[in-house]
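Cell division ATP-binding protein FtsE
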Amino acid sequence: MIHFENVTKVYPTQKRAALENVSIDVEKGEFVFLVGPSGSGKSTFLRLVLKEEKPTKGRVHVAGKDLARLSNWKVPHLRRRIGCVFQDFRLLPNKNVFENVAFALEVIGKPRRFIRKVVPEVVELVGLEGKSNRMPDELSGGEQQRVAIARAFVNRPQILLADEPTGNIDPATSIGIMKVLDRINRTGTTVVMATHDAAIVDSMRKRVIELEEGVVVRDQTRGVYGQAY
Ligand SMILES: Nc1ncnc2c1ncn2[C@@H]1O[C@H](COP(=O)(O)OP(=O)(O)OP(=O)(O)O)[C@@H](O)[C@H]1O
């Protein structure tokens, strides 16, 4: 689903590579944690998957497409297949839960009848049934993140990228967020989550890819946050 082949990324203003000769395969339906210290290249990896950045060297394939050969006008189509969740929720403050989730479908031209059917399903999937009319400022941080996940998933993307999704959420609430991501993964969606949250990584026992200064230093199935040896 995501295939990196000897990918190096050097930002124009930087001497050191943000990613250095990275080769990674993420299969359809996998759940992968991307860990590593600040500045190790996790966000750069996610940006390359979205074609927000281009590799300096090497190849990136996403959902069977070689991104170097994907013309610019097809990039929005690629991004529709990829849901994104961030640390800072990024909800529209003047829209309620239903409208925030519905907006993701409105902008890609889905019919109103379809939106009215699928939005409540996804709101329920993330555990927010009964809260569709709440405004973001009437929700806890954990609930706001659930809305952001619902919005990212409502179009049933093949891939869900999450950059520090529990970064602004307390540990107990984070467990609920991880249950939602796990549920989404079980529908067949590939999930890649960048995180510093050791407790979460240790409790989930999923594949762990560790970056250090842009280099993959560990790739472990059913891994933990720190070195397991
Ligand atoms: N747009 C940019 N221009 C120049 N350098 C950048 C840019 N984005 C990231 N970098 C550099 O690339 C390296 C990797 O950064 P990246 O954001 O991918 O790390 P990260 O692992 O996601 O860090 P964090 O955990 O703090 O989010 C860092 O040295 C960073 O300073």
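thats it. The chain has seven helices and ten strands. The two ends are 29 Å apart (CA to CA). bye
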